[in-house]
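Tutorial, part two.
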Amino acid sequence: MVQFTSRGMALGAVLLLSAAAAPATAHAHGRGPVPGGHHRGPVPGGDRLVVSVRHAGRADGTYVLRCHPGLGSHPDPVRACRTLDRRTVWGRDPFAPVPPRSLCTMQYGGPATAHVTGVWAGRPVDARYSRGDGCQMSRWDDLVPVLPDVRSQNPPRRIAAGAGRRHG
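Running the prediction step on this input gives:
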C-alpha cells in the first residue's frame, strides 16, 4: 500500500491515475485534443466539403473545399480551412443547427441559401443554411469565408409585425 505525505502528492497521484484510467478518446481528426481544443493536423482520407450556394449573386455555385492542405475549387480554401479549424472545438459541432426554441431577431438577411456536405473532422456533414432570421444570419456569418460574405449585398431588413396583411 502506498502512503502519501502531503495533499499535493495525493492530488497529483489522483490526477495521474485518473488520466491513466480514462478511456483513450481519439480526437475526431485522428489525433488527441490539443490545448484549447482546436483541430490540428492531417486526417487520413482528409477533410472534404462540398459547398453549394444559391441566391447569393456572384457567389452562387458549388465549390469543393479540401483542408490540410487547403485546396479545391473554393474561392479561398486557406482562410475557409482556418475558420473551420478555429470553430472545431472538442465537443462542439461547427455545423450545428440553431437550437430549437432559440429567441431570434425578426430580421431578413436575403434569399441566400447554402448546403454543406462531406466529411469534416472524421464526421459526416449535411448542413443547410439560410438568412431568414437573426439566428440563421449569425450562424451563416460565423462560417464566412466557408460561406460567402453576403452581408454587404443583402443588408438585413426588419420584418414589421403583420407585414403583408391588410386589415379591412
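Confidence is low (pLDDT under 50) at residues 4-43, 162-168. In part three we will examine how such features are distributed along the chain.
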